[in-house]
TrEMBL record:
Family: Belongs to the nucleobase:cation symporter-2 (NCS2) (TC 2.A.40) family. Azg-like subfamily.
Record's bilayer topology term: Multi-pass membrane protein
Domain of life according to the entry: Bacteria
Source species of the chain: Cytobacillus eiseniae
Protein name: AGZA family xanthine/uracil permease-like MFS transporter
Pfam families named among the record's database cross-references: Xan_ur_permease (PF00860)
Lineage start: Bacteria, Bacillati, Bacillota, Bacilli, Bacillales
Annotated compartments: Cell membrane
Keywords associated with the record: Cell membrane, Membrane, Transmembrane, Transmembrane helix, Transport
Transmembrane segments: 21-42, 54-76, 83-103, 109-127, 139-163, 175-194, 201-221, 253-273, 328-349, 356-375, 387-410, 422-440
Length: 442
């Protein structure tokens, strides 16, 4: 095992790798709570049951996808990078595809499955790296920041911090409401933990907030801690149902699949490069075993779609494990085992409410908008498409619309500025696709 993971060459040992894997798990364990909450649309009242995914089944799918993805990343690519259903992508799945566009969640899973298969083909052929390189860096950063704002808005809305206001569209919620106050407390405690640099600050903040909620009677006290694993039957294989429905093959679904593809492209690529840099694993400014890492991500997405969850991607929280000493894929294997172990603690996680998850969403939003500083705002031809990409997402409650608007304006501003030669041909293709998106969107 030591030889396979090159412990001696990388200056690590079992203890450091185990602690690193545990740290990464604690930093991203919130996804076990947030993902089922998001995909089941629990924060949206009065929805028909047909629009909601089963909470318990999504919990299992989340843990299984995270475990398999992390295991493959560790064994194949040997990187200390953990995977799980991606934040932002799950919000797009639930709030844009299912809630706004009215697409059945079974069809949405079918879209994730298709994107995963395409990922595998692109990863094996090497085309995935070519496509990633064709998108300008400024738009990659803008998409990340825009999703961060969108996630923050979703979190604030679900906790009642922001409510509908007929006069100005949105306004502050009722700060005398117990659940709103609990969410505010959660934000304060999580911010303090993160500012202090405490590993797993988001997850610990959720635990503390939950306990306080139970003390004040705002959250139900679980009657047990460990129980049998919930059934995955309500979602397992549902993705295949979409292919037998003619309504699945629409322009809207094409846009959905492309969005899944696009966002996961840059989530994974950016995370891999960032973690590898921090761990000192980059060689000649290149990422060794990049193909295997992308393949692990692709297979995990397919497995997750089959079990019943949105796109699985690499997690930037893996940097916390690297900071704790992780240098090899053994840490990812440890994280994978912990996700499987978490399956037995479903009753403990089932009682978590929107007031508890909202702080996590808001803090993740803070982390994602850090990419704003990497955009050159002094160049107007770059600033316009980047800004529109970012701001349109929360204003229209749609990640897809933000991406579409930004990608339409980018070639326009670049051509007018006389920089047409800098535009990759693939960007022109995306320009046409997103124009068609607005023409045929109903």
């Amino acid at each position: 095992m030591k030889k396979y993971f090159q412990f001696e060459e990388l200056g690590t040992n079992y203890r450091r790798e185990t602690i690193g894997g545990l740290t990464t798990f604690l930093a991203m364990a919130y996804i076990l709570i947030v993902n089922p909450m998001t995909l089941s649309l629990m924060d949206i009242p009065d929805l028909p049951d047909s629009m909601r995914m089963d909470y318990g089944a999504v919990f299992v799918a989340t843990a299984v996808a995270a475990a398999i993805g992390s295991l493959l990343m560790g064994v194949l690519a040997k990187y200390p990078v953990a995977l799980a259903p991606g934040m932002g992508l799950n919000a797009f799945f639930a709030y844009t595809v299912v809630l706004t566009m009215g697409i059945p969640w079974q069809h949405a899973l079918g879209g994730v499955l298709i994107s995963g298969v395409v990922f595998i083909i692109l990863s094996i052929s090497g085309l995935r790296e070519i496509i990633i390189n064709s998108i300008p860096a400024e738009l990659k950063f803008a998409v990340s920041a825009g999703i961060g704002l969108f996630i923050t808005f979703v979190g604030a809305q679900s906790a009642g911090l922001i409510v509908n206001d007929d006069a100005v569209l949105v306004g502050l919620g009722d700060f005398t409401d117990g659940n709103v106050l609990l969410a505010i407390f959660g934000i304060f405690i999580t911010v303090i933990l993160m500012t202090k640099g405490i590993k797993g600050g988001i997850f610990i903040g959720m635990v503390i907030t939950s306990i306080i909620g139970m003390i004040f009677g705002l959250i139900s006290v679980p009657d047990r801690v460990v129980d049998s694993i919930p059934s995955v039957a309500p979602t397992f294989g549902a993705a295949f149902e979409a292919f037998g429905d003619p309504a699945f093959f629409t322009t809207n679904m094409l846009v959905v699949v492309l969005t899944f593809l696009f966002v996961d492209f840059f989530d994974t690529a950016g995370t891999l490069v960032g973690v590898a840099n921090q761990a000192g694993l980059m060689k000649d400014n290149k990422l060794p075993r990049a193909g295997k890492a992308l393949l692990a991500d692709s297979i995990a997405t397919v497995v997750g779609a089959i079990f019943g969850t949105s796109t699985t991607t690499s997690y930037v929280e893996s940097t916390s494990g690297v900071a704790a000493g992780a240098r090899t894929g053994f840490a990812s294997i440890v994280t994978a085992c912990l996700f499987l172990l978490a399956l037995f603690f479903f009753p403990l996680l089932e009682v978590i409410t929107s007031a508890v998850t909202a702080p996590a969403l808001i803090i993740v939003g803070v982390l994602m908008v850090a990419s704003l500083g990497k955009i050159d705002w002094t160049k107007f031809e770059i600033a316009v498409p980047a800004f529109l990409t970012i701001i349109i997402m929360p204003l229209t409650y749609s990640i897809a619309t933000g991406i579409a608007v930004g990608f339409i304006f980018y070639p326009i501003t670049m051509i007018v500025k006389g920089r047409a030669k800098e535009i990759h041909p693939i960007m022109y293709g995306l320009f046409v696709i997103f124009i068609l998106y607005f023409i045929f969107l109903k």
